[in-house]
Every structure is written in structure tokens, then in C-alpha cells.
Write a structure and sequence with these properties.
Layout: H1 6-24, H2 27-33, E1 37-43, E2 47-50, E3 53-63, E4 66-68, E5 83-92, E6 101-106, E7 112-113, E8 123-124, E9 131-141, E10 150-155, E11 163-169, H3 175-183, E12 189-191, E13 195-198
Parallel strand pairs: 1-11, 4-12
Antiparallel strand pairs: 2-3, 3-5, 5-9, 6-7, 6-8, 6-10, 9-13, 10-11
Amino acid sequence: MKLYRPVTVLVGVLFVLLGGLARLAGPVHVYDEQPNRVTVDGVIGQKVMVKNSSFEIIRLRFVKTLVEENADDEDPPQATDGIFVAVDWEVVGGSEKMLSHEVTLKGGEGTVYEATDETIGASFTSREPGFAETGTFVFEVNPADTAGLELWVKPTTFWTVVVNDYRIDLGIPDQQTADELIANAKPEHVLTRPVMRVAS
């Protein structure tokens, strides 16, 4: 029977070890150790760049009821046991199209709220270069969960690439501030479609 010399055995073991290390350093392993979503912080009133497009959260309002844009006088407004949060926004298109981004509202206690009006929804999509779109997202929120409100803007993607999630501080530092804003909430908000115009 042929016996392998020690050097040959060592070379074989070395190749096995190198093969194992190569597998560990492959894309799947590296990808698992590196998060594919990076959080970028912003604040209300700040223009946030996504490639060379942008979005901005312009202002926030608390409102007590919602009214459909073309509602009849007999149609009652939509009321809530909580409070409605209306968030005005603007998206400006650039030459590089950005991914579609889903938008949710996160309360201070960690509850995630989705937009109340499903026909309008809550997402940012790419606009033609030189054009801007403005609109309002509306969320129904627990009044006790309004301190530290954040708007989360997350790209919709199934690709295994690193993407940015945007966390926008809506400027309500504590519950006392939130309670004062709620006490002065507008009686109603009219639900309207987003409006497109030439960017200024």
C-alpha cells in the first residue's frame, strides 16, 4: 500500500482549510454579518436626498376628523377615538430614479401606524426630473403615543444590496408638547389627491 509523505499530507490539509475559509468569506457569509439596511436620520423641514431626487416632510398637524374631497353635505366626517396626524410632504424628481419607498409612522412607544386612507396610500415614488409632487399622509394614532413621533421611509426592494431607511424626527420631544398640540387640533382635514407641478 502506498504511503503519503508528510509534506503531501500537510499540503492536502492546507487546501482543505483554505477551501473552508473561502466558503466562510463568500458573499452569503459576509452579507449575513453586514446589515443590508442602514438608517439615515433626518428632521421635519429638512430636504433629504435619495440619489439626486429628494423628499421633504414639510409640516405635521393634529386633526379631529377627516372629510372626503368630494363628499356630499350629508356625508358625516370620519371621526376617531384617538387623533389623526396629517403629514405634509414633497418629492422632487431628479435624473436618477429612486426606488419606491413605503412610509409609516412610529409612535414613541414603538407602535407602527399605517396610513388611514388606502386609496391614497403612503409611499414615495420617483418623479420626472424637474417636477415636484406634494401631498399629505394621514395616520390614526393613540394620543398617548404621540411623543417622539417618527416618520419611517423605507425602500421597497428584494435585492440583496445595502439600502437606506430614513427616520424623520417630527419634532415632538415630549408628551406635554404633544398634549398641547392635540388640545389645539384642527376640527377637520379634507383628504385630497397628491398634486404634481414644475419644481421651483
